[in-house]
Amino acid sequence: MVTRRIMRSSSARNFKSGFTLWLVLWLVVVKPGGVSACPRLCVCYPMPMTVSCQSQNLTTVPAGVPYDSQRVFLQNNRITELRADSFGFETQVLWLYGNNITWIEAGAFSNLRVLEELDLGDNPLLRRLEGGAFRGLEKLQSLHMHRCKLAALPHDLFRKLYSLQFLYLQENQLHFLQDDLFSDLVNLTHLFLHGNRIRAVSENAFRGLVNLDRLLLHDNRIRQVNRRSFRDLGRLTILYLFNNSLAELPGQAMRDVQGIQFLRLNGNPWSCGCEARPLWEWFRKARISSSDLICTSPSQRRGQDLRFLRELDFALCPVPDPGSLAGTTTTTFSTKTRWWFSKNKPASSSKALYQKNSETVKSVPFSSGKTVDSFSSKYELSEDEAALPKLDPEEYWANYGNEDSSIRCFDLDCPPGYDVSAFSSSSSLIASSVLQLLFISIVTMSLYFLFG
Predict the structure, then answer these.
(1) pLDDT value at position 183?
(2) Which residues face 240 on adjacent strands?
(3) Which residues cross the membrane (predicted)?
(4) Which of 162, 190, 354, 405 has the fewest CB atoms found within 10 Å of its own CB?
(5) Which of 66-75, 110-119, 291-300, 351-360 has the lowest mean pLDDT?
(6) CB neighbourhood size of 122 (10 A)
(7) SS3 per residue for the chain
C-alpha cells in the first residue's frame, strides 16, 4: 500500500511538472510567437495588436507583419511605392504619412477589407493616383491625403467608398473638381478642400453628399460657384469660402443650404452692384453666424458691408421676372420708376456709407418681420429717399416692359457732350407731326361720311 501511494504521488508530481513545463513552453514559445515574428526594426505589442515601424528609413512595406495586426504604423519612412502585394495582413488602422510615395498601384489596398483609417498625408511626391487605388475599402471611414501635391483626381477614385465619413484633401494642387467625383460618398460628413487651386465649382461637383456637415473651400482661387452647386447639401452647417476670388455668389446656391449655421465669406473682392442683390436678399432672411462681406466695387460702395446695404441701393437694378422659375432678371424698368430717377436721382444714395459700431450683431444682420433698435438709426431715410415713388405690385407690373424711350440716360450718367435738349426738341417735332397727321385723318373721314 505504501509503495502504491508513493508511486501515485510520484506520477502525480511527474504529471504536474510535465504540464507545468508544457505550459511554460507554450507561454514562452507559442504565445509570444507574434512578438517574435515582429518585422525587423519594428516594435510589436498586443491589446490591440500593434506593429510600429515608424522612422526607420524603410523603403518598402516590411514583410512579416502579423496578419491579425489591428494597427500598423509606417509613417516617417522612405517608402516609395505601394503595390497590390504590399499588404499581406488585415488591419483597421494604417498610417503611411510622411513617406516618399510616388505611385499607388490600382488595388493596392484591396486585401485590407476591414480598414477603417488610412493616412497618406504629407507625401509630397504623390502627384497622381490611379482610379482603382482605393478599390475594396468599403469599410473605410477616414482618408487622409493632405499635402501630397495632387493636381487632379480620377473620376472613379472614390467609387463604392460608402462608409467614408472624413476626407482630407487640403493643401494639394487641385485645379478643378470633376462632376460626380464624390457621388458615392453618401455618408461623408467632413470634406476638407482648402489650400488648393480650385477656380470654379460646377453644378455637379458635390452631387450625392447628402449628409455633408462641413465643407471647407477657403484659400483657393474660386471665381465662380454654380447656382446649383450646393443643391444636395441640405444638411450642411459649416461653409468656408473665405480668401478666394469671388465677386458674387448666387442667392439660389445659398438657399439650398437651409441648415447652414456658420458661414465665412471674407477675403473676397465682392461686387456690390445689381449682381449682389440675390445674396443680399438671402442675408435678410438668414439667421447665421457670418463673417463680413466688404464691397470692393462699385466705387461708391467700397468699404461697405454687403449684408447691410439698403433696398434703395438696388432700386435701379433689373427686377426678377415673375414668370421665370430660374429667377432670371430683366433689363427693363417701369416707366414711372425710370422717369422719377431721371429727374430726382438722389446723390445721397450713392455716397452714404454704412458705419458699423459695437452694437452691430454679426450673427443676425437682419431681422425678419421685426425692427431691431440697433439698426433703426442706420436706416432713417433722407428727404430724397423718402420721395421715391411708392408703387404697389399691381401698378408696377402694369407698367412692366413699357420703357420710356425718351430717356436715353440719367442726368448724372449722361456722357460728356451729350445734348439732352436736342433729343427733347426732336421728340417734340415728332409729336407735332403725329398730331397733324391725326387731324388730317379726322377731317378726311368726316368729309367721307358727309358727302358719301
Answers:
(1) 96
(2) 216, 264
(3) 429-451
(4) 405
(5) 351-360
(6) 19
(7) CHHHHHHHHHHHHHHHHHHHHHHHHHHHHHCCHHHHCCCCCCEEECCCCEEECCCCCCCCCCCCCCCCCCEEECCCCCCCEECCCCCCCCCCEEECCCCCCCEECCCCCCCCCCCCEEECCCCCCCCCCCCCCCCCCCCCCEEECCCCCCCCCCCCCCCCCCCCCEEECCCCCCCCCCCCCCCCCCCCCEEECCCCCCCEECCCCCCCCCCCCEEECCCCCCCEECCCCCCCCCCCCEEECCCCCCCCCCHHHHHCCCCCCEEECCCCCEECCHHHHHHHHHHHHCCCEECCCEEEECHHHCCCEHHHCCHHHHCCCCCECCCCCCCCECCCCCHHHHHHHHHHCCCHHHHCCCCCCCCCCCCCCCCCCCCCHHHHHHHCCCHHHHCCCCCCHHHHHHCCCCCCCCCCCCCCCCCCCCCHHHHHHHHHHHHHHHHHHHHHHHHHHHHHHHHC
Query: Is residue 254 pLDDT above 80, yes or no?
Result: yes
User: How many domains does one find in the chain?
Assistant: 1
d(C-alpha 62, C-alpha 87), whole Å = 9
In a domain, 44, yes or no: no
Q: Which domain holds residue 368?
A: 269-424
Residue 284 in any domain: the answer is yes
C-alpha dihedral sign at 345, 347, 351, 353 = negative
Phi-psi group of 147: left, alpha or beta (phi > 0 → left; psi -120 to 50 → alpha; rest → beta): left
- Report whether 61 contacts 53 (CB < 8 A): no
C-alpha cell, 276 = 449682389
- Contact (CB, 8 A) for 206 and 225: no
This prediction has a pTM of 0.65
The more confident residue out of 350 and 116 is 116
Instruction: Answer yes or no: is 288 within a domain.
Output: yes
Strand-pair category, 43-45 with 50-52: antiparallel
Amino acid in the structure at residue 128? R
339 in any annotated domain: yes
pLDDT digits (tens, 9 = 90+) for 21-62: 444 344 333 444 434 489 989 999 998 999 999 999 999 999
**Does residue 445 carry a pLDDT above 90?**
no
Higher pLDDT, 158 or 451: 158
| CA gap 254, 237 in Å, rounded | 12
pLDDT at 442 over 70: yes
Task: Say which range, 24-38, 243-257, 287-301, 434-448, has the weakest mean pLDDT.
Answer: 24-38
